[in-house]
Amino acid sequence: MINDILNTFSISEQNPGASDGVQFISTSGAGINSWSPVDGHKIAGVQTVTKAEYDQVITKAQAAFRYWRTVPAPARGEIVRQIGEALRVHKDALGKLVSYEMGKSLQEGRGEVQEMIDICDFAVGLSRQLYGLTMHSERPAHRMYEQWHPLGIVGIISAFNFPVAVWSWNAMIALVCGDVCVWKPSEKTPLSALACFRILTEVFNKNQLPEGLCSLVQGGKDLGEWMAEDPRVALVSATGSTRMGKAVNITVAARLGKCLLELGGNNAIIVSGDADLDMTLMGVVFGAVGTAGQRCTTTRRLIIHESVFGQLTEKLKNAYAQLRIGDPLDARNHVGPLIDKDAVAQYLQALDAIQNEGGTFIVEGGVLEGAEYASGCYVKPCIAVVENHFAIVQTETFAPILYVMQYRDMEEAIAMQNDVPQGLSSAIMTLNLREAELFLSVAGSDCGIANVNIGTSGAEIGGAFGGEKETGGGRESGSDAWKAYMRRQTNTINYGKELPLAQGIAFNI
């Protein structure tokens, strides 16, 4: 089945990717092999770019930008519309490839491609709404206004957990803004990226667009460093760990470049004594085990009012007992594997740290064994009773580990919610209007995303996505996140017969 999917995108082990106008494939770089965590099998390999080849990519991107910035924004939107239509055609095949290469459930793989389609639709509308402002001048016969121009080359560094969607959040918005893109995908999911560029190839070639408009470069840490250091890359949008983001930010800031960071999350749901516990259960379980706990918006902490702690944890124990763990391409399964054995090792280290700090388990964890788990990447979602100050609770472990703790009053709960270094997503479950409004107020959640009666995971593309503190402060996707991909320019036009100076200054000559 997977070979049929690869053939759909003209990918094979013998010829993983030839130069096709939008993608750059190295002829001399080292290789990256893609291994599926589903069964442990090697899928195919791609070559990495050398520094000289990377420079060629950037040169082509510069030339493409000089053309693309002159194309009217609605015409750029038409290209993105066609990309969305092509994604609709390939949704099933690309969703299966994402699921097999990354390990998320088939429903989530297809959902990720649907996110790409949704952002294309959003970007098409945006292409006619890149609005500026007009201002009143203090000088007679003068008009002031501001407009937005494209930045240039946008470098996109994406993570394995959303191997295609997060790229599209950046690329589709950047394209309608008049930018060109160079994409470094995760080394763990290179084939999903390659498949995306096969889809782009069809659209770009049909419209006779220049090479370099969108480029794919495969590589490791050194490639990310080249992009961060390169003054020709106007904006670096990086998604990944806080450690990686800090390194990128320091390097880009040293050259006064622009950075958009989407980094770690340590997301909590506060469960009020006035919560609908059945609704809460659904939000918590999906938030905690979806994508095997490998989302930046995964629910990692559950802060429960003492009056409903026992009742809710009992419901959670029953729900976890019903989870089906296995091949993510089987739609009956809820939870697939972790991305690789390194992730499994980090999961096991976290379990040890919980016990060492005095936590206890109400749902035990562990690595699953047996023929269907032969890749060694399948683990049990678990629930641990902890204190918020535990060192392990203060960090982000990319695994299905849910920490539960109790609170007495809402002010205490909000303080616990905010008392972690990360600030991405947060939620409260309550039917109490006062509690909900307090949570959303300036005295409430300090996260970039704050929800009421839904979980921390599953953001819609219409809203700006991102977080504060060690999450990096970036915003992608909807709302006015497009402004990150453009530069603001203020213009003043004098249509009178005199040249008065601002602030009433007289300069007689």
TrEMBL record:
CDD domains: ALDH_F7_AASADH. InterPro entries: Ald_DH/histidinol_DH, Ald_DH_C, Ald_DH_CS_GLU, Ald_DH_N, Aldehyde_DH_dom, ALDH7A1-like. Its EC number is 1.2.1.3. Residues 29-490 form the Aldehyde dehydrogenase domain. Pfam families: Aldedh. It comes from the Bacteria. The active site is at 262. Keywords: NAD, Oxidoreductase. Belongs to the aldehyde dehydrogenase family. PANTHER family: ALPHA-AMINOADIPIC SEMIALDEHYDE DEHYDROGENASE. Homotetramer. This is aldehyde dehydrogenase (NAD(+)).
